[in-house]
Amino acid sequence: MSWFSDRLFIGRLRTGPTVLLPAEASPSVLLEMLRLVDPGAHFDGDDIMVAGVRVTAGVELAEPQLHKLSIQDEKQLWAHRVVADGPLPVNGFDEGLAEGIAYRLGGWSMTRGLMSDPAEDDSRGPIAYLGEMPPHEEMLPLLRRHLRPADSIKQSWQQAGPAELDDGIVHLLQEDLHMYGGADILVSAVHEYEIPPAVHAVMPYAKQLVKVDVRPFEDADGTILLSGDEAMLEIGAVAFAIVDAFRGQVTDIWGFQVSEPEDLLPCGYLDTTEATEATEAAALDS
Questions:
Q1: Is residue 17 part of a domain?
Q2: Phi first, then psi: what are they for 220, rounded to 5°?
Q3: Which of 5, 35, 139, 253 sees the fewest Cβ atoms within 10 Å?
Q4: The whole model's pTM is what?
Q5: DSSP state string for 261-283
Q6: pLDDT band at 100 (very low <50, low <70, confident <90, very high)
Q7: Spatial CA neighbour of 38 closest among 256, 229, 275, 259
Q8: Is residue 260 one of the residues assigned to a domain?
Q9: pLDDT interval class at 285 (50, 70, 90)
Q10: 46 and 11 in one domain?
């Protein structure tokens, strides 16, 4: 690669969105994982097309190239660019896709020169997509069974509107927003017109859905009251309870389909990648 080509390539990686992985990902595992975002994901040469976005084949980066990206603590990484085929997605789908890949494969995402680890974001969580707004009189008893009860209405609720406390569940009902909370988990439901590809695949005729976010509760001072893997499993269980009661589909915040709460944990595809590489190596040796 010429000096000019190398500089142009590094510039594109820095602009991103770019996925940076600590090890080479098996193309077959990467395709399988990306079909959780878009069941129609497919190979296009060595790249993978996902809902109009191209995930390029991995390129090995050595120390000199990493230093040009201001990455000093790694000796080798594998880079995948995430490139829109056409107009840039206005909803940040390409950036979210890069973060979701990095989250599952123990890597990082880079956009506009900023490198981030999605696993360090304690505000991440599942989204339940439903056909209709859950009835208030059915939502309250469901959440009482799955949330630790709140003993008071915190200041952040008071800033949102006229919330009420009813037998351990805080609730705030507005025309286009229903919010519920226990001691440390917040559930909010709004009407949504942007339907992720994974959800559209199971609800192909829906023009509008209800998006139910389940998150750790964030206090007025920015303190997140629940964090770590156990928190992710807890809020995942709440999302699946909502879907089981009202019928729908669960994804993570990046639009990857989720089948069980454990799918929300970071590095979920590392074991799959290692197993696939071992199988492929054994096949070559035989």
A1: yes
A2: -60, -30
A3: 5
A4: 0.90
A5: GGGGSTTTTHHHHHHHHHHHHHH
A6: very high
A7: 256
A8: no
A9: low
A10: yes
